[in-house]
Every structure is written in C-alpha cells, then in structure tokens.
Amino acid sequence: MTGWLRRLPLVYKMMLSAGALILISNFFGLFVAVRMTANSMRKKNLGQLQEQLAIILSTVTSSIDDTTNLMLDLTAASSIKSFANDDAEFQNHYLETVNGANDRLRQLLRSNAAIDYVAVIRIHDDQHLYVGENILNKELFSVYQENYKTAQNFVKQGILSNLLAGWHEIPMLNLYCTIYDKYSPVQKPVAFLMVGMNTKKMQYFIADNEAGSNIRLLNSEGDIIVSKNLQEIGKKAENYERFQGDSGELDEAENMIAYRKNSGQQWVADASIPKDMLFADVYRLIQAMFASILCFMIGTLVICSLMCRRIYRPIAELREAMGEISKGNYRVKVRTFEDPDLKQLSEGFSQMAGSIENTLDLVRSKEQEKMEILLNALQSQIRPHFLYNTLECIHWQALLEKAPGTSKMVLTLSKYYSLCLSKGKDIISLGQELEHIKSYMALQNMRFDNIAAVNYHVSDSLYGLEIPKITLQPLVENALYHGIKAEAGRTGTVDITGDVSDGKLILTVSDDGVGMEEEAIAYLNRTINELVNDGSYGIKNVHKRLALRYGNGYGLHYEGNEDGGICVYVTLPARILQNSKGE
Fold first, then answer.
1. Angle in degrees, CA 415, 417, 419, rounded to 5
2. Residues 441 and 557 in one domain
3. What is the reported pLDDT for 362?
4. What distances in angstroms separate CA 156 from CA 65, 71, 250, 394, one per listed residue?
C-alpha cells in the first residue's frame, strides 16, 4: 500500500497531503456545523411543537369548560329539576315542562359543534329527555347508566367524564352532571345530565397542525380521545406511563414524541413527528453545505496544485543538478531564484558544488604529494641498507686489524640501524623496541663512558604487544641529553616500566636528571599537539604519530617524579602484534 506512495514524485505527494488536509478540515467543520445546526433546529422545532400543544390544550380546556359551565347552569333550571324530581309541578304542567326542558337541552346541543346528543335521565324509572343525532333505545340507555356509574375523571367540580366506545360508529366522550333531589336534606341523586361529544368532530382541535405531526388528545387515564387515526380512539396510549412532569419529549427509534399536560393534568396532548420530517431542514442544509464545500474543495485543490507545481519546479531543477553531480560533473550550476529561501538554497547549492570541486582538486594534490613521499621513502630505505652493509665490512676489517673496541662499537651501531630499518615495517613488537633501546644505550655509554644505566621493569608477557617503532628511543634520548647530561660529569639512571590496564598498554620512561619547572611541564603537555620546532620537536612527533594512528586518548603525558627528574607516560592500545614471536 505504501510502496506506490513512496514512489510518487514529490509534487504529487504535496498535492495529496494538501488535499487530505483540506478534506479532513472541511468534513470536520461540516460535522461540527451540522451537529450544532441539528441540535438548534431540533430544539426550535420541538419548541414550536410544544407551543402548538399548549394552544391545543388551552382550546380543549376552554371548550370543555364552557360546556361544563352550561351543564351546571342547566341542572339549575326549574324545568330540568321538575323533570328530574318528577314532582307535582311536573305532573300538573307536563307538556310545558318537557318543552321547556327540551329547549334548554337544544341550546346546549347547539353551543358546541362537537356535541352529538344531550340527555337528562332519571335514575329510578329510566325516564329521560333526549335531543341529538343518535336514536336512544333502551339497550343503549342501560349502557349510559353503567357508563355514568363508572365515570371517574372529574373534569370540573360536579362534572364527570368517561369514554364510551363500541355502541356508536365513533367513540363518544360523555360528560355527566348529577342532579340531586331538591326536597331531600342530603344529596340524593335522582337523575343525571349527559352530554355526548363526538370524538370525530373534535378533530377541529388538532386540525390546525403546521408541523406535519400526528397530534392526539388523551384523558388523565391515558385513553386516546382525539386522533387523526380513528382506529386508535378509545385505546390506551402506548407511551403514556413514560409521560413525566407537565411536558417533555421522548426519543424513539424513528420518531420524536412531545407531550404536554394542562394545569389540572386532566387532559394530555401528545405529538409524534418522524425524525426525517423533524430534520428535513437539516438535511437540506447538509446538501447545500456539502455542495458548497465540494465546490470550495475543487477550487482549493486546483489552486494547491498550481502552487505545488510552482514550489516543486525549483526543487526539480535542483534534483537534476544533483544528478549531474552524482555523475561527476561538479561544475554544474543552477539558476538563482527570486524567492528568498529558494535563492539561498540555489546559491548554497552552487557554492557546495564549487567547494566539492575545490576539495577534490586538493585531494588530488594531496594524493600526488603522498605518492611522491612514498617514493622518496622507498628510495630512502636503500641508503640504510648501504650503510648497514658498509658497517658490517668495517666491523670485519677492525677484527682483522685486531681493534676489538672499534669492532664492538661498529657492530653495535650496525645492530642499531638494523633495528631502525625493521625490514620496512612501521609497527614492531615491544620486545624489539626494547632491544633498540639497549643498542642505543650501549652506543651512548661507549661514547660518554657509562653515563647512564637503564633498568627494565617490563614483564616478558608484554613483549609480544605492538608499538610503533622509534617510540621509546626519542624519550630515552631526551632523558639522557636534557635530564642526566644537562650537568657536566653527572651520571644517572633511566627506568622503563610497562603494565596493562583496561585494555591499554601504559609505558613509562623516568629519569633522575635535573627535571623541569611545573610551568614548563604544564606548557609542554598543553602544546604537545603543536609540531613547532621549539626544542621538543622529537617528542611532539612521537605524540602526534600515536594520536594519528590510535586516536584521542593515546599519546604522551609528562609529570615530575620523586627523584626530581621527569616521568613520561606512553599510552597505547594493548594489542598483540600479528605474526610476532615476542622478540
């Protein structure tokens, strides 16, 4: 998956990165905007729905209150009371009383378009007065009696309500008002006034519904009184038990349900609105925002593409120039760009190419010098061979002339030069280096009449370790000439020790000569890396050779010793010389 991405040119990677960044940022912004807008519109729509429910409840409560007030007034009418009590006045003026009572019932019937019938029914003899659309028969009368007895919902003081279903084409909401015996000292029911409200005609309460939701009217028992779906009138509302408080909302899988109760909590209005309808404005907004963002993204990608190509063009030129350099053409040049950063980059690139060319010229020059030095070194090795062979001839001639002292000196000198030559090797064993010191000191003692003794404190087990040749001889020579021989007639001792610690070979050359001041010792240690001909060139040469060959941490270090002389510490890596026999 990532292989093809790595192989893409840089310009396409830049375009992809810019496009991905724009896409992520835009979709994140769209998500946040849609989320906030959806919440805002949800609250707004549900708030409007709650306001509509409040208006419906207010209308329902006002309408039913008006009807119940008329019912209470009607029960106080003399004609209604005479009929209900079946008293002498009713018997004496039967026709007049019945006509008067029916007129009052018709007035109540015409007061509300939802009222289907109004009746006064006596309890003790089943006599009744009835006006309305439905025909009252004896069987239905008994149903009304039972419905009246089970009515529990107090709509208003003295008014009961109950839902009657199954006996009419449309379930009826019956309101009942008890009529008491006017002659009894206690409240004795003798009749009841009944008003039947057609639940289908009560649809006008919820007809003005702009929200497109299914609004229903329930009583305090959760019975559905009014609904556009006539099949569910008279049934229990499925979510009624979850209606907590005076108002609220329920979040269902596909619908949002809002509900509100009136102040007496005798009537409840609820509304079920599909979520796709509730968020229809949100969906339209999303479509508009998506179209806008899509156009913006296309325009931005086009601009980014042009900018990326403009940025990448100088980089491509630099890449081509680098390709020329990889082929060995260090004289390649790139044009100077107008952009400050690219200008600095192009100028720096040209300078780098020029520096590389100059460096290569210098390296070629150094290689030429190195070759010349190597040829000179090979040529110089011829001269020690000639000198060594000549000394051998002098040695044998001295023996023939019976001059043993001369023969011994010449033989020692011959051995010294033989060790210096070391068959052309730069690295020898420690044992060979010590033999070199012994030959050197033998010559010096012959020359200066045993001026110094050398004590060797080096274990035989260290003789096979490697050491650059002529490392210790300059130090011994320095101890002899600047330490012991510094005073006329003085003799002394040089001690050479060797030890291995932490993988390092530590050699010391210590003398009991005149020594040096502390300031001089400090100056020598501080300037030991500087190859300046200040009288200490030989030891600085030794230190430089060790440092160049083995790195930092290896070389010479000077200190004063207890005998008043100088002690030189030589630090080398403890390596066994390859093909060494420990000589």
1. 70
2. yes
3. 79
4. 8, 11, 30, 153
The residue with tokens 């509100």 is 260
**475 burial class (0-12, 13-18, 19+ CB within 10 angstroms)?**
buried
Q: Kindly report, residue by residue over 351-394, the tens digit of the pLDDT.
A: 777 777 788 777 777 677 666 655 554 444 444 544 555 666 66
Helix (H) or strand (E) holding 244: none
Q: Look-up: residue for tokens 């060319």?
A: 357
Q: Which of 190-204, 297-311, 320-334 has the highest mean pLDDT?
A: 190-204
Write down the pLDDT at residue 211: 52
What is the spatial distance between Cα 573 and Cα 583, in angstroms, rounded to a whole number?
19
Pairing of strands 452-457, 466-468: unpaired
Residue where a domain terminates, one of 187, 202, 217: 202
| pLDDT-derived band at 464, boundaries 50, 70, 90 | very high
- Residue 203 to residue 233: CA distance in whole angstroms: 11
Query: Are 436 and 569 within one domain?
Result: yes
CA distances 108 to 57, 113, 137, 194, 488, Å, are: 22, 10, 21, 11, 156
CB within 8 A of 370, min separation 6: which ones?
Answer: none
Q: How far is CA 473 from CA 108, 440, 506, 563, in A?
A: 142, 8, 16, 21
Same domain, 357 and 475: no
How far is it, in rounded angstroms, from Cα 451 to Cα 203?
Answer: 139
Q: 185: helix, coil or strand?
A: coil
- The answer to whether the beta carbons of residues 274 and 255 sit under 8 Å apart is yes
> Which helix (H) or strand (E) element contains residue 308?
helix 280-326
Q: For the chain, what is the domain count?
A: 3
Question: Looking at the DSSP assignment, which residues form a beta bridge with residue 566?
Answer: 560
Q: Print the domain residue range for 368.
A: 330-379
Q: Rounded distance, CA 543 to CA 471, Å?
A: 9
User: Based on the domain organization, do 354 and 468 belong to the same domain?
Assistant: no
Continuous segment of H or E residues that includes residue 242: none
Whether residue 508 contacts residue 572, with contact meaning beta carbons closer than 8 Å, is answered with no
pLDDT computed for residue 76 by the predictor: 85
Q: Note the helical H segments in 381-499.
A: 382-400, 404-421, 430-448, 472-479
Residue type (1 letter), 227: S
- The pLDDT, as a whole number, for residue 583 is 44
* Tens digit of each residue's pLDDT (9 = 90 or more) over 213-236: 788 888 878 888 888 887 888 788
CA distances for 216 relative to 52, 203, 236, 237, 504, angstroms: 12, 9, 12, 9, 100
Q: Are residues 374 and 439 in the same domain?
A: no
The pLDDT value given to residue 511: 93
What is the 8-class DSSP label of residue 236?
B
Query: pTM here?
Result: 0.44
* 8 Å CB contact between 41 and 279: yes
- Interval 107-143: pLDDT, tens: 988 988 888 889 888 887 778 888 887 656 666 777 7
Which token pair is 147?
Answer: 């419905």
Residue-wise pLDDT for 388-437, tens only, equals 556 666 655 666 666 676 666 666 666 666 655 555 577 889 998 898 88
